[in-house]
Amino acid sequence: MLDYLLPRYKVLRDRDECVQCGVCERSCANGVHKVDEDLGRVTADHAKCVNCQRCVVMCPTTAIAITRWPQVDAGSGNWTLEAMQDIAKQAQTGAVLLASMGNPKDYPIYWDHLLLNASQVTNPSIDPLREPMETRVFLGSRPGMLKVNEREHVVMTPMPPQIRLDVPLMFSAMSFGSVSLNAQKSLAMAAKELGTYFNTGEGGLHRDLEAYADHAIVQVASGRFGVDPHYLNAGAAIEIKIGQGAKPGIGGHLPGEKINEEVSRTRMIPQGTDAISPAPHHDIYSIEDLRQLIFSLKEATLYRKPVAVKIAAVHNVAAIASGMARAGADIIVVDGFRGGTGAAPKRIRDNVGIPIELALAAVDQRLRDEGIRSTVSLVAAGSVRSSADVVRAIALGADAAYIASAALIALGCHQCQDCSSGRCNWGIATQNPDLTKRLNPEVAAERVVNLVRGWNHEIKEMMGGMGINAIDSLRGNRLMLRGIGLNDKELEILGVKYAGE
Amino acid sequence: MKRIYAIEAWCIDCKRCEVACKTFHSRSRDTVKAFTVEYPQPQNRVRVEGTRQLSVAVNCRHCAQPKCVEGCISGAMTKNPRTGVVTSDPRKCVGCRTCVSLCPFGAVRIEDVAEKGIAYKCDLCGEVPGEAGEPSCVAACPNRALIYVESEGC
Fold first, then answer.
1. Which residues belong to any copy of the 4Fe-4S ferredoxin-type domain (chain A) (predicted)?
2. Which of A325, A256, A263 is nearest to A290 (CA)?
3. For A162, A212, A322, A324, which has the most beta carbons within 10 A of its beta carbon?
């Protein structure tokens, strides 16, 4: 039957530059390009293009560019082409619309409304190339009071378990199954090199990654995939995933076709069966229940590993975070609504949750007001795009930031939002062996390491400009931020003054 | 000497190496001209064998005791004793195909580019025959499936 869908993209090919070498044809898992020898040119099936830009990057003569399909909309600001296409799709299939990656809608990005400070005259700025600059962070709980034996120079108070990050960021949870083993291995290698952590996601720890377990945060989610005592004790820390910024209130569904032998072994589920993560943890219906799970995990690991709890940024995030801290969480992770996903219902991704900037400021303030901020670490996630965003997040109150989309972009991701198809041409969100081998972890890890090293240099530069020589002095230091283009309520929630104040 | 090694686990059958090789061995060193207007058509010396599931870029090994040199009847195929680079001189080659039949790796090919067939093989992108350069296939590989590293033997 004729579906009423229009192509989304159009492949532009410069015929003066195209040499018909066929690199584009061999690079496209969606079957867009075809070297047509009868016509003596390369043709394109535009409707299949998802704009992943693999062909654009691979073309030896840069003959390809992708543009939007030139069809105009009906001239209505209400019935946009996208709104009508969604209806056409659902009229055809009767299904829930599926989408991937973070919320792409035009909501305010508060990072871009926060300006950083720098020292002039009255206090000196610091040159990070000449003076030491500390970006090391410890995550975990902290004792209420520190007793020191000054004569012996030793700390007497027993310290709760903590993890040490040499850079103030980590790689957020992406499970093996949703991403390829090569993608996870790339991040694991990069985490080890950088002195930070990757997160296994809810898909278990593949045996090939056990060598990187010291740099793994092992996740326990509602599906409990791959969880056993060995797994819990293998990682550096444990993270309980309650929610994800891209799809708050929603579970996960990894279709059976992605559960191959390796995914099956790692997740400890039969091959070819759908991996369904329930929306809630069926044993958590209250803060008290969460406390039980936190302490079950602490018991299972002999109180040697910090336990993090990750929630999506939702309306009552501050009160929930307060409950989490009281339930015994050592690290609180808040994931904003622009955080990515391998697959989410489109309406959920685009309409549920709140921005990380507001959530982070609200949580930090609430924990401070209640006098419990110092007992937990706070990690911000959900579309941290640059080192400047990391600095802003820390100044708003985070101990560290989680990055995932940015790390994937370093691996080659072009944010085409077609992860759920399983045909990722960059070898990231796929289990197809022809495609996963496109991601050589050696190359990919180098790229991620480069990115994070670059960011860390920039973070030091920005801190130096402020006259701050340790990331600890930046944490929650909202005087280093000024708002621009924000209303009074936004400034109040963010806890920042307006530029010029 | 430094040799090119192909790693099949990372070869993705894109054949960018072939395009880069052909471009380097053209007169213009311009991809569009190499593929469209140059005559005789420049030839790529690296060749990706296989399918998308399993492929590998076949390249001259520059053997310590090259069979192709041993068997060459016209003296066109030579190994530089100092650099170890094996090259074929198109002016001397008579197209007898002895080298093709002797090469254990299938790395020499005869191409009918002029009136007669001539043996083509990897010359490590040297500007001068017998000298190694910076192999263009290695630079063009997007996935480090081709590496250019020091190896034993000359």
1. 9-38, 40-69
2. A325
3. A324
